[in-house]
Amino acid sequence: MRLLVTGGSGFLGGYVLREASRRGHETVALARSPAAARAVADRGAQPVAGNLDDTGNPSDAARLDRVFAAAQCEVLVNLASLGFGHAPAVVAAASEAGIGRAVFMSTTAVTTTLAAPAKRVRLAAEQRIRASALKWTILRPTMIYGAPGDRNLSRLLILLRRALLLPVPGGGGHLQQPVHVADVADAVLSAVERPATAGATYDVAGPVPLTFDELLRTSARAVASRTRFVPVPLTPVVAVVRGYERLSPRPRIRAEQLLRLAEHKAYVIDSAARDLGFSPRPFAAGIRAEAQAMGLAR
Questions:
Q1: Helices then strands, each counted (H, E), the chain
Q2: What's 269's DSSP letter?
Q3: Where is 64: in which H helix or E strand?
Q4: What is the predicted pLDDT for the residue at 56?
Q5: How far is the C-alpha of 57 from the C-alpha of 16, rounded, in Å?
Q6: Where do the domains of the chain lie?
Q7: Which of 53, 141, 242, 262 is deepest in the core (most CB within 10 A)?
Q8: How far apart are alpha carbons 101 and 144 in whole angstroms?
């Protein structure tokens, strides 16, 4: 099949483009900059200039509907975040281009009980997708990890190699279910290849939930860390991080992330296993491989 991919220059995008090539698909990837074009080309895709921030200007040669039509693809694979309000333009452009089949990447973060602004945007995006005439499938992955630069556990592994002591806000008793990036990429391509998944939404998570404390200790074993974990109350840590957010132009951690530690993030993946053949690797194996790839394993 010939696939039109958004978000192909991102972390997950690299895995999806390479896996698509391995499975014999042609890929065309939207690229908003020369750097993004080079990145997707290196991953085996044909870059096409385009921007999800579509102005709607009739004279704009890079208008999304024109770009999508010129790509002449059968399936849209939208890996770009639904949290920035692009969904209406993407759905409209795909419909105008005659792309009937589409796989969209959302996130299990939409199930949070917190009043997160991105939650409202993503849920509205999912609603817009479901109301469209597209033969859509929505995937909701949990926290993605598995390789250097994953923005989630890479930093933790580095920290565990250095820190003698690590505070654990909230005590570490709430459940997590991280999923390896290669397993997510496999689920994306399986959805593309299985038309029967149209009209369904799938949670895509690791094989079993584990507590945050278990996640930390498993990660520590992967790098032979002797870090001591010290439970601390969540509320004062959140207050400190909120102050840090106000002072930092580009904060590396946000209060919302800490507050999410007080929520169970465990999901049932039976439907993904049944319909997509989804069989994620155990966390211990995945984090050990990531530590090895980063040169941190001992």
A1: 12, 13
A2: -
A3: helix 64-71
A4: 55
A5: 31
A6: 2-141
A7: 141
A8: 25
User: For residue 193, what is the enclosing H or E element?
Assistant: helix 181-193
* 4 bridge partner residues: 28, 76
Q: Any idea which residue has 């002449």 for tokens?
A: 72
Non-local CB neighbours of 95 within 8 Å, separated by 6+ positions: 132, 133, 134
Topology of the domain covering 2-141 = Rossmann fold (3.40.50)
Nearest of 95, 89, 94 to residue 76 by alpha carbon: 94
CB 223 within 8 A of CB 160: yes
- Distances from the Cα of 260 to the Cα of 143, 205, 238, angstroms: 12, 16, 11
Query: In this predicted model, what pLDDT tens digit does every residue of 163-210 receive, in sequence order?
Result: 999 999 999 999 999 999 999 999 999 999 999 999 999 999 999 999
What are the C-alpha distances in Å from 177 to residues 94, 124, 245, 266, 282? 33, 25, 27, 6, 10
Q: What percent of the chain has pLDDT over 70?
A: 97
**pLDDT-based confidence at residue 283 (cuts at 50, 70, 90):** very high
What pLDDT is stored for residue 61 in this prediction? 42
